[in-house]
User: Fold this.
Amino acid sequence: MRRQVLRFHPSCGVLALLVTFVAGPASAQQRPLVTEDPESIGAGRVLIESGFDYGHDTHYPVSGLNGNLLRVPLIGISVGLSSIAELQLDGGFYNRLSVTGRQTAPLSFMVDQLGDSVHDVEDVVVATKIRMVSETARRPSFGVRFATKLPNAGNESGLGLDTTDFYGSILVGKTAGSFRTVGNFGFGILGDATRGDRQNDVVTYGVSVAHAVTKAFELVGEVNGRIDTRAGTAPPGTESRGQARVGARYTKGGWRTDAGLLFGVTSLDPDIGFMAGFTYVFNAFKVP
Assistant:
């Protein structure tokens, strides 16, 4: 089995410096960031986002597959249930791994797709986010988010785990001048794909910074992931994972386009990749 190691990228250092010197209200963060802003999209509003990402040298320790992963289209829908709460649904229709290697792994015998590529759908995540404390000039905003990952991708493709996971996070956000800084901290309860009677608890984290260069154009960056808390070796598929992302986004009216680069934090993550997409927000209904 591939030995997991941490690795450092220059983008992580740049983001760390930004977070150190920036700490202030703004609309909820969207693509290409995945760190959740405590601010909701607003009562009666609907956010639709779509895009793709591509990661080079991705590893699947449960199935033993290695390769380059394309996910397209990635779809996200958020519905503003009130001024402080929203319902989120995220997933994707097509994941394709161009296989560069197959290794012996706990469930490698279950993979029934042969050849130089495998494909499957993306696991769907259903979540609820609630802003608990509003932001003021001196105080950041606080929120909570609870999410469940459903087992849509199967272990027969080698890309899924057939497990249901649960996440809970505390969200913090503050704007200072042209900078918006957001932090997430929480936990995840991950099922063990190799045994039905075992789980692994992980700590989740995320720190993002968005800099408004102009009213429409922003530079963004983040580090987001999870840390295994189990003593000894983590059950396969529940190891520490993480990514650093840097990119830009441009907003015009209700539309926003984005593009960026991603870098893996651990040796199991893609060493480098890129993503692009769009977001559209509109008023859909009135909340009584």
Observations:
- The chain is about 5% helix and 55% strand.
- Residues 10-26 have pLDDT under 50 and may be disordered.
- The longest strand covers residues 85-102.
